[in-house]
Recover the amino acids of this structure.
Protein backbone atom coordinates (compact mmCIF):
# COMPACT_ATOMS: atom_id res chain seq x y z
CA UNK A 1 0.00 0.00 0.00
CA UNK A 2 1.52 3.28 -1.15
CA UNK A 3 1.03 5.74 1.68
CA UNK A 4 2.33 8.71 -0.29
CA UNK A 5 1.25 8.96 -3.92
CA UNK A 6 3.20 11.25 -6.23
CA UNK A 7 2.42 12.54 -9.70
CA UNK A 8 3.35 12.99 -12.45
CA UNK A 9 6.00 10.33 -12.97
CA UNK A 10 7.81 12.62 -15.40
CA UNK A 11 7.53 16.28 -16.31
CA UNK A 12 8.96 18.33 -19.13
CA UNK A 13 9.00 22.09 -18.72
CA UNK A 14 10.45 24.90 -20.75
CA UNK A 15 13.01 27.21 -19.17
CA UNK A 16 11.25 29.99 -17.27
CA UNK A 17 8.08 27.96 -16.80
CA UNK A 18 6.47 26.68 -13.61
CA UNK A 19 7.00 23.06 -12.58
CA UNK A 20 4.30 21.54 -10.37
CA UNK A 21 4.59 18.17 -8.66
CA UNK A 22 1.76 16.79 -6.56
CA UNK A 23 1.60 14.39 -3.64
CA UNK A 24 -1.30 12.90 -1.73
CA UNK A 25 -1.14 11.05 1.54
CA UNK A 26 -3.50 8.76 3.40
CA UNK A 27 -2.39 8.80 7.00
CA UNK A 28 -3.69 11.87 8.84
CA UNK A 29 -1.11 11.29 11.58
CA UNK A 30 1.68 12.49 9.28
CA UNK A 31 3.03 15.79 10.55
CA UNK A 32 6.16 16.49 8.51
CA UNK A 33 6.36 16.76 4.73
CA UNK A 34 9.76 17.29 3.10
CA UNK A 35 10.74 17.43 -0.55
CA UNK A 36 14.02 15.98 -1.76
CA UNK A 37 15.94 16.64 -4.97
CA UNK A 38 18.15 13.95 -6.46
CA UNK A 39 20.63 14.39 -9.29
CA UNK A 40 21.94 11.33 -11.19
CA UNK A 41 24.62 9.51 -9.22
CA UNK A 42 23.95 11.54 -6.07
CA UNK A 43 21.99 11.06 -2.90
CA UNK A 44 18.68 12.84 -2.28
CA UNK A 45 19.15 16.34 -0.86
CA UNK A 46 16.59 18.10 1.29
CA UNK A 47 15.02 20.96 -0.66
CA UNK A 48 12.23 22.32 1.50
CA UNK A 49 9.87 20.97 4.16
CA UNK A 50 6.52 21.93 5.70
CA UNK A 51 4.43 21.05 8.73
CA UNK A 52 0.61 20.97 8.59
CA UNK A 53 0.12 24.09 10.70
CA UNK A 54 0.87 26.29 7.66
CA UNK A 55 -0.62 26.20 4.16
CA UNK A 56 2.39 27.47 2.26
CA UNK A 57 6.15 27.74 2.60
CA UNK A 58 8.41 29.51 0.17
CA UNK A 59 12.18 29.37 -0.18
CA UNK A 60 13.53 31.21 -3.20
CA UNK A 61 11.97 29.74 -6.34
CA UNK A 62 10.59 26.73 -4.47
CA UNK A 63 7.18 26.76 -2.79
CA UNK A 64 5.28 24.03 -0.97
CA UNK A 65 1.48 24.34 -0.95
CA UNK A 66 -0.28 22.25 1.68
CA UNK A 67 -3.98 21.34 1.80
CA UNK A 68 -4.68 19.51 5.03
CA UNK A 69 -8.36 18.81 4.35
CA UNK A 70 -7.58 17.28 0.96
CA UNK A 71 -4.49 15.49 2.31
CA UNK A 72 -2.43 16.87 -0.53
CA UNK A 73 0.73 18.89 -0.89
CA UNK A 74 2.61 20.12 -3.90
CA UNK A 75 5.95 21.56 -4.95
CA UNK A 76 6.03 24.55 -7.25
CA UNK A 77 9.27 25.55 -8.95
CA UNK A 78 9.01 29.04 -10.36
CA UNK A 79 11.17 30.21 -13.27
CA UNK A 80 12.38 26.64 -13.84
CA UNK A 81 15.99 26.34 -15.01
CA UNK A 82 17.87 23.55 -16.81
CA UNK A 83 19.87 23.10 -13.59
CA UNK A 84 16.62 22.09 -11.85
CA UNK A 85 16.50 18.94 -14.01
CA UNK A 86 16.52 16.14 -11.45
CA UNK A 87 14.25 13.62 -9.75
CA UNK A 88 12.06 15.05 -7.01
CA UNK A 89 10.65 13.04 -4.12
CA UNK A 90 7.98 14.05 -1.67
CA UNK A 91 7.97 12.33 1.71
CA UNK A 92 6.05 12.23 4.96
CA UNK A 93 6.62 11.09 8.51
CA UNK A 94 4.78 10.68 11.81
CA UNK A 95 5.46 12.46 15.10
CA UNK A 96 8.14 10.92 17.28
CA UNK A 97 9.62 8.91 14.45
CA UNK A 98 12.48 9.45 12.06
CA UNK A 99 11.03 7.15 9.40
CA UNK A 100 10.39 8.90 6.09
CA UNK A 101 7.81 7.45 3.70
CA UNK A 102 8.78 8.51 0.18
CA UNK A 103 6.65 9.09 -2.89
CA UNK A 104 7.60 7.33 -6.11
CA UNK A 105 9.51 10.29 -7.56
CA UNK A 106 9.07 12.70 -10.46
CA UNK A 107 11.69 13.11 -13.13
CA UNK A 108 11.80 16.76 -14.13
CA UNK A 109 13.46 17.89 -17.34
CA UNK A 110 13.77 21.60 -18.05
CA UNK A 111 14.66 22.49 -21.60
CA UNK A 112 16.23 25.79 -22.64
CA UNK B 1 33.73 18.91 4.83
CA UNK B 2 30.69 18.12 6.94
CA UNK B 3 28.84 15.29 5.32
CA UNK B 4 27.55 11.78 5.27
CA UNK B 5 30.12 9.65 3.52
CA UNK B 6 29.81 6.03 2.53
CA UNK B 7 32.19 3.58 0.94
CA UNK B 8 32.51 2.07 -1.51
CA UNK B 9 30.61 4.03 -4.17
CA UNK B 10 30.42 1.00 -6.47
CA UNK B 11 30.38 -2.65 -5.51
CA UNK B 12 30.20 -5.50 -8.01
CA UNK B 13 30.15 -8.99 -6.58
CA UNK B 14 29.04 -12.52 -7.29
CA UNK B 15 25.98 -14.22 -5.89
CA UNK B 16 26.60 -15.90 -2.57
CA UNK B 17 29.34 -13.52 -1.46
CA UNK B 18 29.32 -11.46 1.73
CA UNK B 19 29.96 -7.73 1.51
CA UNK B 20 29.94 -4.64 3.73
CA UNK B 21 29.17 -0.98 3.15
CA UNK B 22 30.52 1.61 5.55
CA UNK B 23 28.97 4.93 6.53
CA UNK B 24 30.24 7.82 8.60
CA UNK B 25 28.68 11.16 9.43
CA UNK B 26 30.42 14.15 10.99
CA UNK B 27 27.28 16.24 11.39
CA UNK B 28 26.88 15.37 15.06
CA UNK B 29 23.52 13.72 14.38
CA UNK B 30 22.02 11.18 16.75
CA UNK B 31 20.16 9.08 14.22
CA UNK B 32 21.47 7.18 11.21
CA UNK B 33 19.66 5.16 8.56
CA UNK B 34 20.01 2.80 5.67
CA UNK B 35 17.69 3.29 2.71
CA UNK B 36 17.42 1.14 -0.42
CA UNK B 37 16.66 2.62 -3.84
CA UNK B 38 15.57 0.08 -6.41
CA UNK B 39 15.84 0.19 -10.19
CA UNK B 40 12.62 2.22 -10.40
CA UNK B 41 14.15 4.77 -8.02
CA UNK B 42 11.77 3.87 -5.21
CA UNK B 43 13.31 4.77 -1.83
CA UNK B 44 12.51 2.62 1.20
CA UNK B 45 13.90 2.69 4.69
CA UNK B 46 15.64 -0.46 5.90
CA UNK B 47 17.01 0.42 9.34
CA UNK B 48 17.50 3.32 11.68
CA UNK B 49 19.75 3.66 14.69
CA UNK B 50 19.63 6.27 17.42
CA UNK B 51 22.77 6.59 19.53
CA UNK B 52 23.87 3.08 18.50
CA UNK B 53 20.49 1.57 19.36
CA UNK B 54 18.34 -0.08 16.66
CA UNK B 55 15.07 1.84 16.36
CA UNK B 56 13.57 0.80 13.05
CA UNK B 57 13.95 -2.57 11.38
CA UNK B 58 11.71 -2.85 8.35
CA UNK B 59 10.90 -6.16 6.76
CA UNK B 60 14.42 -6.86 5.61
CA UNK B 61 15.91 -10.35 5.15
CA UNK B 62 18.11 -11.53 8.01
CA UNK B 63 20.99 -11.58 5.55
CA UNK B 64 21.19 -7.81 6.11
CA UNK B 65 22.78 -6.85 9.41
CA UNK B 66 23.50 -3.27 10.40
CA UNK B 67 26.12 -2.45 12.99
CA UNK B 68 26.69 0.86 14.74
CA UNK B 69 29.99 0.98 16.65
CA UNK B 70 29.30 4.59 17.68
CA UNK B 71 26.74 7.23 16.82
CA UNK B 72 28.83 8.56 13.94
CA UNK B 73 29.11 5.23 12.13
CA UNK B 74 26.56 2.80 10.73
CA UNK B 75 27.76 -0.11 8.62
CA UNK B 76 25.69 -2.56 6.61
CA UNK B 77 26.79 -6.16 6.19
CA UNK B 78 25.06 -8.38 3.67
CA UNK B 79 25.47 -12.16 3.68
CA UNK B 80 24.85 -14.58 0.83
CA UNK B 81 24.14 -11.89 -1.74
CA UNK B 82 21.33 -12.49 -4.21
CA UNK B 83 20.58 -10.97 -7.61
CA UNK B 84 17.60 -9.12 -6.12
CA UNK B 85 19.89 -7.28 -3.72
CA UNK B 86 21.19 -5.20 -6.63
CA UNK B 87 20.22 -1.61 -5.85
CA UNK B 88 21.63 1.67 -4.62
CA UNK B 89 22.00 1.79 -0.85
CA UNK B 90 21.96 5.16 0.87
CA UNK B 91 23.14 6.00 4.32
CA UNK B 92 21.53 9.04 5.94
CA UNK B 93 21.57 10.87 9.24
CA UNK B 94 19.29 13.31 11.03
CA UNK B 95 18.85 15.16 14.27
CA UNK B 96 15.72 16.01 16.22
CA UNK B 97 14.17 18.11 13.45
CA UNK B 98 13.97 15.04 11.19
CA UNK B 99 15.74 16.72 8.24
CA UNK B 100 17.64 13.74 6.86
CA UNK B 101 20.96 14.17 5.08
CA UNK B 102 21.91 11.45 2.62
CA UNK B 103 25.25 10.09 1.50
CA UNK B 104 26.12 9.73 -2.17
CA UNK B 105 25.03 6.10 -2.29
CA UNK B 106 26.62 2.72 -2.95
CA UNK B 107 25.58 1.06 -6.18
CA UNK B 108 25.59 -2.68 -5.51
CA UNK B 109 25.51 -5.00 -8.49
CA UNK B 110 25.21 -8.73 -7.87
CA UNK B 111 26.15 -10.92 -10.84
Amino acid sequence: QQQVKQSPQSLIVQKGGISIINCAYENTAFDYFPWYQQFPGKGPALLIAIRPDVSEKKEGRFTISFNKSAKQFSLHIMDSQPGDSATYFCAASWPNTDKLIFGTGTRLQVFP
Amino acid sequence: DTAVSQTPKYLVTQMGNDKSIKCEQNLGHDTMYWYKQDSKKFLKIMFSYNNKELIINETVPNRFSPKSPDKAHLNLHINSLELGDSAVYFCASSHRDRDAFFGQGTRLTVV
In short: Chain A has no helices and eleven strands.
